[in-house]
Write a structure and sequence with these properties.
Blueprint: E1 2-3, E2 10-11, H1 30-43, H2 45-58, H3 60-73, H4 75-88, H5 90-103, H6 106-121, H7 132-152
Antiparallel strand pairs: 1-2
Length: about 150
Amino acid sequence: MKICTKCHIEKSESNFYIRKATGYFQSWCKKCLSIYRKQYNKENREKVKEFQKRYQEENRDKIRETEKHYQKKNAKKLRRMRKEYKKENAEKINAQNVQHRKRMSDQYIKKLIANQISRGSGTTIKFKNIPNEIIELKRKQIQIKRLIKQQSL
């Protein structure tokens, strides 16, 4: 048992975080620390944003590795969550897809190219590996097909 120095309530040690540097428990309990952090973030929004931006720029590779590890470890959970989201938000997703098709956004074009490649050769390609020249050519191809379709009606 440990007493929180903020709220002065005796709580079990599971209610306290452990400091990485020292290996000792924090002096404030998790609840008090959470309340403090929320208030601090609210009062120092710009300062916190700037810190987060700088941290992400300086630790881009570390963040990517952490995300990859999490995605690997939780692949089933993430798949289930995506499936549930798609089911619950089907109308919203369909509306977005209609807008992507109308605007012919890069995301929409890349998706078409990736699908075409995977169907043709059975291999997959990452969106970031699709050159801009290919995206523009595919966009022109779609525009031509749409014009032909309009004129034939």
